[in-house]
Amino acid sequence: MRWRARYVDDDGREQTKRFPRKRDAEDWLDEVTADLVTGTYVQPAKKKVLVKELAEGWYATKGELKPKTLEGYRGLLDTLVLPRWEAVPVGDVTHEAVQTWIADMRSKGVRDTEKGLSASRTIQAYQVLRGVLDYAVKRRHIPLNPAVGVDLPRKVTLERRYLTHRQVEDLAAGMGEWRVLTLVLAYTGLRWGEAVALRARNVDLKRGRIQVTQSVTRVGRELVEGPPKSHAHRSVPVPAFLVEELRPVLEELDVDDLVFESPIGGYLTSWTYRSKFDVARPIEGMTPHDLRHTAASLAIQAGANIKAVQRMLGHATAMLTLDRYGHLFDDDLDHLAANLSESRAYSLRTEGEKKKVVPLRKTV
Predict the structure, then answer these.
(1) 1 CB neighbour count, 10 Å cutoff
(2) What per-residue confidence (pLDDT) applies to 113?
(3) Cβ 105 vs Cβ 116: under 8 Å
(4) Which of 27, 30, 90, 336 is the most buried (most CB within 10 A)?
(5) How many degrees, rounded to 5, is the angle at CA 69 between CA 155 and CA 84?
(6) How many CB atoms lie within 10 A of CB 130?
(7) Which domain holds residue 289?
(8) Are residues 183 and 278 both part of a single domain?
C-alpha cells in the first residue's frame, strides 16, 4: 500500500506526494505545514530553478551601477561563480557546499590551476554568490540564504606609505611635466581617475577649490568618464602655494580642456605617469595611490579633524576615514599634550598679571 499526502500551498494550488509508509507521509506533511505557518514555505518547482538563471536575473537588476562595477560583477560570475554553480538547482545549494567552494578557490584557484586566489578575490566571488542567493530568497525560490555565516579568509592589510613634505617636493622635482599633477595628488587627495578627469572649469583659483564632479575608470580596453565614487560631488581645498603652481597651467587652457592631458591627447593613463613615477619614487614599492594616503597624513599634521579629512577625500562616512587613518591622529596626542601645557602656562601667567593690576585711587 502507498500513502498520499496533500496540502494547498499559499498560492491556492494543491500539492501531493506519495510515500510507501504512512509515518513518512505524516512527517512530510507536518514539515510542510510548519513551513506554511512560519512563512518559510517554498514551492517545490521554484527550488528546482538553476543558479545560472537566477544569476542572470540578479545581474539584470544592477543596470544602474557604474560600467566598471558591472564589468567586475560579470567577470566574477563568468570565471568563478557560474563554473561551479550554474547547473545546480538553487534548492540544492548548501552552507557546507559554499564553504567547500571558498576553500577550493583559496587552494586551487580557477579551474584547478593549483594557484590559489587571494583573500580579496575570494571574498569578491563570495559576495556575488551571496547576492544571487539573496535575490533568490526575495523571489521565494529558497527560504534562507545558505551562504550566510560561512567562514571567509582574512584580507591582508597592505602597508600604506606616507611621504613628508620634503619627500613630496623631491618626488615632484623628478616628475618632469607631471610635477604639478604630483603635487595635486599629494596635497588634495584626489583619486587617480578624478585627477585625470579634471577640467579647467573645475578649478577655482580665486577660492582655492577644486570641484570633483567626474572620474575616469577603465572598462575593458577603454577609459570611460562618469560620476566619482559613491556618485558624490565634492569641493576640495587647494593650498595657496598649489594655487600658484596651477595658475600658469590653467592660463593655457580653455574651460573644457583637461588639466592633465595625455601627451597624445585624451585621458592620461596611469602607466604613462608611472613610467616616471616608478623611477622618481622615494620608497620602493609605493604607488601613485600612496599620494592620496600622503594627502590625508599631511592634512592631519596640519590640524584637520576627521570630518574635514573625510570631506576632502570623499569618503562616504567619517567612520571609513577613521578606520583607515585613525592611527595618524594618535601621533597628534603628543602635540595635544604639549599644546595644553603651553595653553595652561600662558593662561595662568596672563591671569596672574591681571590680578596684580591695582586701580589708582582718585585724588581730589
Answers:
(1) 5
(2) 56
(3) yes
(4) 90
(5) 65
(6) 16
(7) 165-329
(8) yes
